[in-house]
Amino acid sequence: MGTKPDFSIENAHEGDVCGIDEAGRAPLAGPVVAGCVFIPRDSRKLGFIRAINDSKKLSKDKRETLFDLICAHASFGVGMASPQEIDDLNIHHATLLAMKRAFENLRGSKPAAAIIDGKFAPSLPCRTQTVIKGDGLSKSIAAASIIAKVKRDRLM
Question: Can you tell me the mean pLDDT for 30-34?
Fold first, then answer.
């Protein structure tokens, strides 16, 4: 079944670390939505954390359940880029804009570092690390993928 994401990447950084991912980059309609999630160390021990995985590997019902638990036990932010912004900027730059907005909308104090799914990072006021296929490697990125996917599904 493959490996599940863990906190290895987060633990390699000093200070608090958030994960960022997007949903809606491939579809032909609607906005691109990004999620940003910081899972506090004391919440990492909660049972539901084990179930967090890449949103594409979870059923709709499982994503919805995990969405509610993540929102209750972690700090999160959501950012979007509209279809007009996608047309004006292109999907790549619109995705980075949505990710930046998600980070800016993160509740509470801002983390010292952000780990971002993919090859490219938005300009953020903290250290950034890109991780290819990060939603399958990092719990924080996987949680962000769930937030982004559920928010986008609810919009569509």
Answer: 94
